[in-house]
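The freezer alarm interrupted the setup, so I double-checked each line after restarting. Inputs confirmed:
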Amino acid sequence: MLEWLRHYRRAALPGDLGAGVVVAMMMIPQGMAYALVAGLPPVAGLYASILPPLVYALFGSSMTQSVGPMAIVSLMTGAAIAPLAAAGTGLHAVLAAQLALVAGAVLLLCGVLRLGFLANFFSRPVMSGFTVGSSLVIAWGQVKPLLGAAPPRWHAPSAMLGLASLALLVLARGHLAPLLRRLGVRPVAADVVAKLAPMVVVLAATGVVAAFDLGAHGIALTGPVPSGLPQLNLATSPDHWRALLQPGLLIGFVVFLISMSAAQTLAQKRGEKLVSNRELVGLGAANVASMVSGAFPVTGSLSRSAVNFAAGANTPLASVISAVLLALALVLPTGWLALLPLPTLAATIIVAVLGMLELDTLKTAWRYDRGDALAWLVTCIGVLTLGVEAGVIVGVVLSMGTLIWRASRPHIAVLGRIPGTEHFRNVDRYPAATSAGLLILRIDANLFFGNVESVNERIEDELRAHPGTRHLVLNMLAVSSIDTTALFALAELNASLKARGIGLHLAEVKGPVMDRLRDSSLPDQLGGRIFLSTAMAADHLNSTSPEKDPR
Amino acid sequence: MLEWLRHYRRAALPGDLGAGVVVAMMMIPQGMAYALVAGLPPVAGLYASILPPLVYALFGSSMTQSVGPMAIVSLMTGAAIAPLAAAGTGLHAVLAAQLALVAGAVLLLCGVLRLGFLANFFSRPVMSGFTVGSSLVIAWGQVKPLLGAAPPRWHAPSAMLGLASLALLVLARGHLAPLLRRLGVRPVAADVVAKLAPMVVVLAATGVVAAFDLGAHGIALTGPVPSGLPQLNLATSPDHWRALLQPGLLIGFVVFLISMSAAQTLAQKRGEKLVSNRELVGLGAANVASMVSGAFPVTGSLSRSAVNFAAGANTPLASVISAVLLALALVLPTGWLALLPLPTLAATIIVAVLGMLELDTLKTAWRYDRGDALAWLVTCIGVLTLGVEAGVIVGVVLSMGTLIWRASRPHIAVLGRIPGTEHFRNVDRYPAATSAGLLILRIDANLFFGNVESVNERIEDELRAHPGTRHLVLNMLAVSSIDTTALFALAELNASLKARGIGLHLAEVKGPVMDRLRDSSLPDQLGGRIFLSTAMAADHLNSTSPEKDPR
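Predicted 3D structure, all chains:
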């Protein structure tokens, strides 16, 4: 904890300072916008950007992760609370904070139980399909505030401001960085400045609103933002804890997946080591802090963390600086924050989520592995048709289904001797000779509950294909572990083969596997023997008959 | 379909006939008892034993499976309907039939989608813990009918009859088969006759009830059983479909797991092949048939199927015969069925589920793999404290967690050359020599989303441990597949190594893996080369520097 601070080098300070300023400027419009996505007052998004990143800096393990509001998590928050309270009400805000507590508690618990390996739960196609589906849902949800009325209607002044903001942001997104580069700005600096376009557009729109009193023309504004730091909020609504349990679990899960995928991308770029169990604790503590601030669930966001990284962040001090700046913004007069036009904020959200609409994963998967492409499509369509929460469940089921399916199809080869050598190879690929009555199989997978049945089926298939078999030798060179289910399956296979007059032998059992097997009764009950090498097994069994060699 | 009938050999008939009679005699008390467990009138258990096994005989793939009511599935049925309707009401019966339809539809759908591999979903310890927990719940639920009143109270005549029946059944269970064997009965026949003890005890108790008019003394009886075959029942209660969806899904899942585990045990004994996708269709169709009969979810039961097998069943004709016999029993006068005393039926249930209380799996797991033993305990305690439905979910989560955990820890070895040879081996286990600047890693697992992160972490760890590395060679001999997630991870690793001036090379890539990789852009972008053998890679890379050998 705080190792980065103990070993802080002075040289890291300029980078951290610059990144802190940039991220704070990015956070103001983003935090307010994502609070709106969650159905909350905009100031909640600022609260979510102060204490949570500070707490994450204490407990997390990533150096450049920027923790705070994030579009998909806000969408899930809004969807989870919608059935319980109307958006904008006090109850809605209380429930959002409670949801952050539930998600935080789930993450902390997983961290204490060292369940960091769960970050491997989603395949990349499933995660990508989920992200794209969620982005479309978020973008669609912002069309109404963008136009000032539900389409196909629109409110002309709002729509003009919204669409103008959108056009400016799209232009800045596509052309600002190249333009700056052509003007001689360093590429990294150009990219970072381009990322500040939302802040500039929001400020400009706010200026226009103030100058022409557009609020009076019916353009919706954020409204008064209470000055001062967030109040400690421990208000609870006891009736709703049960209803928040499942969404809190799912949100905690998604918070972890999104944050880990962002942190891993950056850690690889910096050659850094990420500790997934510490990430769980860091994110869990950040969400508890968000609850205390009266905010809503937060996570590490790839887009913001990438800016933090590009702007020069070396350590979590960058996040501390940006949190302090945001706190200052709330302590200073906040009158100008009340004049932010919602159509412009909607435009910033739409442009932000359009950046998450990447189809590369789908394209690559389509060429490389049609099954993975299908998983992408099913997850995306699941989010669009069933909602974001059901989309997570669809993703889990698909990922787990894929996992079991893959695990349940281990490779098994029939081995034969390469004539004149001690080598045994797959008879399908090498000119290897088998001998009558002796069947040698190499199992190319660890044996565990997910594949014991198919291993068993395959063995029975081969026995049917080699009807005169008297000895079955399993080459165990590729087997690094045998779980309890597989131990029982081996014992049952042994008993069944014994009853049919076939000896079961093992060869090339790895040391650690053999040590474990000695704790079981299998070696004693084995109908055959355990051989050091396949060649020794073949030589011995070819010269004896099973009746003469009972063990 | 019906292949067994087309190739029916006359010699199989006596065995099938005998087994059909035995199973029918076993079915009568068992079916009625398990209907009571599900909160249904006893006759529903008989209905569930006629059409479902007939339909399973048409579609299933197991030769000796006996499909019908089963204790755990009945417990789940009762638990699922309890919140929706009171036991014994007409609505309860309609919902039970609908639940069979939902479970059947789920199974059929899984069969059509060829999801038979899901039978590998539960590890054996989890399945065993679930079975033991459920058995205890069922046994405890029968204490009240056994004693005629909720303990600590009891109704003296009921308790006397119930405890006497229990004592007789426990005696028969432990001592009848050995006694018969000592009297010269063949061991298999002795075992089969012993299994008929429940029928004999029930008949005797019914005789006692009739002779002494015990119904008048307050002993609860089954009550009038409507004569005749089940009426086609298509009554629906539209409001409840939604509420039945989740339990129907869980019941379908458990039906499949229980039936497959029974069928696999017997198929192995007979050296037969089981087709899991056909089992899904057979069980699905049987449950739809159960709905049509106005019954409740059914499955293949190990205890009954084992009796069927031991009594000589050779083909599904045995099940057809037992179904016909049960239908006859309903067509003939059914007055005697009304006098079956419930305390005796409760005793048969308790003795039946005590047979499922096996602790061998726990004991073996405790000695062999403490983690598996823990999974057993957590699942069992989950069923006891949270209920049978939550127990299934706990089991799924535990099994999946174990699966990901195992999959996420692939074995990776640093290889070195055995001096004077072409062989490369794990430096931890062999006196193998590494050379400066060249790091060779062997990845002993298929690469997929579940392990890419830990492979990546391990590679970075090794690079940190070998700071002078200029070339990283991945030996891919043990890698049989690379999914889309792993493809992206390799591409990102390649880019990251390139940026650090390290060449990434592959060696001994299997043919099918290489064919797939050619569909991607990885071979073109690779910072290093793809070598046929590790020795060739080492020879080439030791004689060149990375700058001189860009590809």
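Quick read of the result. Residues 545-551 of chain B have pLDDT under 50 and may be disordered.
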